[in-house]
Design goal:
- The structure is a single chain.
- The protein is an alpha+beta fold.
- The chain is built from two helices and five strands.
- The strands form two sheets. The protein has a three-stranded antiparallel β-sheet with strand order 3-4-5, with helices on one face.
- Strand 4 and strand 5 form a beta hairpin.
- The longest helix is centred in the middle third of the chain and has 16 residues.
- The chain is globular, with a radius of gyration of 18 Å.
């Protein structure tokens, strides 16, 4: 519900910020099915996977803050790719308020592909993740 135009919210109003549950459907990507509900760390792991699999700005259903911008990096100068992969992955994942940091990047570039391993620091705990980026053909 929106605040009516011209309305004033009193400064003494006591407003508490509340953590929303991260409960969501668990997806079995191999079978293409929902496998029940997941929460907390498992939900964040799934969110990381989905964010990195979704190219930002491609799908109108998602806001401009959702997804990553990894396409178009392969084939460029390896020094540029290394710095941009780290920046773009951090930027994409830090949009999720459950993720506090993305650290310990290990980037291996081999021809037209790159394998990126990193640590995701979330409010529910830390975990290792990886993302393969390949040239779009």
């Amino acid at each position: 519900m929106a605040t009516p135009e011209g309305a004033i919210i009193p400064a003494e109003l006591d407003v508490e910020e509340e953590q929303q549950p991260s409960l969501t459907y668990g997806i079995d990507f191999e079978r293409g099915r929902i496998r029940g509900m997941i929460d907390e760390l498992e939900a964040v792991k799934q969110a990381v996977f989905l964010i990195l699999q979704t190219e930002r700005y491609r799908y109108l259903i998602y806001s401009a803050d959702y997804g990553s911008e990894l396409e178009g990096l392969i084939g460029r100068d390896p020094l540029f790719v290394r710095s941009e992969l780290k920046r773009r992955i951090r930027e994409a994942l830090l949009q999720d308020d459950r993720i506090e940091d993305v650290t310990n990047f290990d980037i291996q570039i081999n021809g037209d592909s790159a394998l990126v391993r990193f640590t995701v620091v979330s409010v529910f705990g830390d975990f290792e993740a990886e993302q393969e980026v390949t040239a779009v053909v």
